[in-house]
Amino acid sequence: MPEPLPTPKKPKKAPATSGATLKPLLSTLDDLTGGRFEARVDVGALSGEAAEAGRLVNLLMERVQSRVADSELRKERTQVIVEQAIDGLNALVRQGELAAFQARTDDAVLSPLLDGFSKVIETLRTFVREINEAALRLSSSANEVLAASTQHESSSTEQAAAIHETTATMEELKHASAQIAENAGAVARVAEETLNSARSGRGAIAEFIQAMQQIRADGVAVSESITKLLRRVERIGTVVEVIDEIADRSDLLALNAALEGSRAGEAGKGFSIVAAEMRRLAENVLDSTKEIKNLITEIREATAAAAAAAEASRQATDAGERLGSVAASAVEGILSGVQETSDAARVINLATQQQRTATEQVVASMGEIEEVTRQTTQASKQATGAAAELTQLAGRLSELIKRFKAD
Amino acid sequence: MSEHVDLVVFEIGGLRYGADMTQVRRIDRLERDASVGAPLGKPFEGRRALVFCPEGDRELHLAIDAILAVQSVPRDDLRRLPLAVGPSPFIIGAWLDRDAAVLLVDLFATNPFRPTEAPNA
Amino acid sequence: MHPTPLQRALAEAPDKARAQAARPDEEFFVFKLGDLTLAVTSGHVREVARLTPLTPLPRAPSFLLGVVGNRGQVMPVIDLLRFLQQGESKVVRGARIFVGESNGLLVAFLSDAVIGLRRIFVADKLPPPAGGGAATEFLMGVVQHRELGTVSLLDLPKVLQSARATVVRR
Question: Cα distance from C32 to chain B (closest Cα, Å)?
């Protein structure tokens, strides 16, 4: 509010005027000093110098009033700008709104101030933008770190599990190789026994083959004997045929002699008796040869059976010999196989012993690795916790920064 | 009279027969249905024929299986057939070839046994 | 002293063999053919021989098996089983044949086996059984022989005569 102008001229006018005629001037001055600045001197009521004075007072008041109005206008304008600035600051403070600050003025006095403000706001805006960006990056990095850390943690856990498993497996392997060593030992023992059995089997087979050869030789001898026997029997058969023929002829002769004797009547009686006797003899011979023939047939059948048996025996011994040689080669194969098995079992036994030692070392190493891994897991758990916290913080920062709207 | 007789010895159905060589004109391949019949029994194959001419130049054929021999036979080995045998008119005797009796055939006498020839006979 | 049975027997024993002539007999040639045992009087049998290769005769009756050469003679061979209509004999090479003779006819007969000469009491002869079929007319009778069982006595001359008649009739 501009200070009302002082009225230093009032005392000067008073002496120049008479009391009565100066009255309108004075009352106006009174009003004016009383603060009623719209009051004007009634110049018509005055005359002379007083009127002049009054006109001057009025003029002055007009001018003052004009100046006051001017000043009021300027004051109002400034007020608007300042209020705008205050509103912008308020928005900045309350809502973090930086973009809203748009104060401009032609006021030479205010202008630098507003420019300063603007510059500060602009700087702030740049800060906010950068911080926002950084916060975003931080958040994403923190997320990445968290993810990586989590990944690491789970990997580490898995690794620990794997190592644990491996250790268990190695333990099993240790037991297994112990078992193998034991089995290999057993195999070696069995192989040794088998070796001994196969050696005695080889001897037995050799004896068997020898026996078979002997049997075959015997069989050949038997066959030859049978053939010889058969030839003799055939010869006997031929002889018997001859005897048969002779007996048959004798029979005929005797018959005819009997007939002759019969024709001779009483004189031929003795002849007939002899003939009858002859016939009886011939018949006896025929009976005997029949028996011999039967016997020969039987012998033939028997020798044929014997020959067949000999042939069967020969085939059987051949088969026996073949089987024997097959068995012999099989036993040879078994022997070499068993020898190899025995050697292999020993090698396996040795190898498994070595493997057991190695496995034990591996198990020990695995224990150490497990411990390290456990620690790693612990550390990665902590890292994950920290990363989670960091992520949280980055989030919070982002939240905070979001309150400042730079654009 | 000669001590020997020449015989044509032939075979029909596995049996031997003899015929006087002078009765046989020739031996030929048998033409279809040319035989006088089978008075001595059916031949197995009958591919050969004894050709003979009982009267004039008319040739007759007897189907036989094979000619076995043309043989000179001593008269003492020839026999008339016993009465009990009652031989067919064309079986005139036997030649005793050791123990075996070979029947002797009068080829000309076989002629009437041909059915188509019967009316002429 | 009673005599022993032996003493009694010796007292009654003959001085020589009892006369056979008391019972007249005839000698027969006995042979087997199929299931039959046949006999012919020995006087009609000239010879026993073995069957040599048989030459069949064309158009001959079935009982006339053919001819054989026997001791330089051509001889017809008859199968009595076929002739008597009692079946058929098997013709086996080397089988026994016998040569029958009657009225100048010589005929060989097949036989399965020759038993030999046997004397048969005339009184033992029985007439041939009635209803014996075609065979009966050629039988002189039958005999129950102790050793040989039923023996049929064949009338060989009749057989030969009939056979010849049959053959010649054809």
Answer: 24
Strands C25-33 and C36-41: antiparallel
Q: Which of 247-286 (A) contact C at CB < 8 A?
A: 248, 252, 255-256, 258-259, 262-263, 272, 276, 279
Q: One digit per residue, pLDDT tens: chain A, 407 residues? A: 555 555 555 444 445 545 557 788 888 888 888 888 888 888 888 888 888 888 888 888 888 888 888 888 888 888 888 888 788 778 777 777 777 666 667 777 778 877 887 888 888 888 888 888 888 888 888 888 888 888 888 888 888 888 888 888 888 888 887 788 788 888 888 888 888 888 888 888 888 888 888 888 888 888 888 888 888 888 888 998 999 889 888 888 888 888 888 888 888 878 888 888 888 888 889 899 899 889 888 988 888 888 888 888 888 888 888 888 888 888 888 888 888 888 888 888 888 878 878 888 888 888 888 888 888 888 888 888 888 888 888 888 888 877 777 66
Is pTM beyond 0.90? Reply is no
How many alpha carbons lie under 13 Å from residue B58 in its C-beta half-sphere? 8
Q: Which H helix or E strand runs over B17?
A: strand B15-20
| Residue A307: partners with Cβ closer than 8 Å, 6 or more residues away | A223, A226, A227, A230
**In A60-184, at which residue ranges do the beta strands (DSSP E only) sit?**
none
Q: What is the dihedral of CA A75, A76, A77, A83, to 10 degrees?
A: 110
C55 with B94: Cβ contact below 8 A: yes
Domain A163-380 belongs in CATH node 1.10.287.950: yes
ipTM, two decimals: 0.77
Residue of B nearest to C52 (CA): B99
* Contacts (Cβ under 8 Å, ≥6 apart) of A26: A14
CATH code for the domain in which residue C60 is found? 2.40.50.180
Long-range contacts of A285-294 (CB under 8 A, 24+ apart): A285/A243, A285/A246, A285/A247, A285/A250, A286/A244, A286/A247, A286/A248, A286/A251, A289/A240, A289/A243, A289/A244, A289/A247, A292/A236, A292/A240, A293/A237, A293/A240, A293/A244
Asked whether B and A share 3 or more beta-carbon pairs under 8 angstroms, the answer is no
Task: Count Cβ atoms below 10 Å from residue A367 Cβ, excluding itself.
Answer: 13
Q: In this structure, are residues C117 and C30 in contact, taking their beta carbons and an 8 Å threshold?
A: yes
Domain residue ranges in chain A: 1-91, 163-380
Ramachandran category for residue A207: left, alpha or beta (phi over 0 → left; psi -120 to 50 → alpha): alpha
In terms of Cα–Cα distance, which of C38, C80, C50 is closest to C63?
Answer: C80
Neighbours of chain A (3+ CB pairs under 8 A): C
Range of the domain at C156: 24-169
Residue C49: alpha-carbon gap to chain centroid = 15
The tally of domains found in chain C comes to 1
Q: What whole-number distance in Å separates Cα of residue A90 and Cα of residue A348?
A: 90
Mark yes or no for CB contact C57/B15 under 8 Å: no
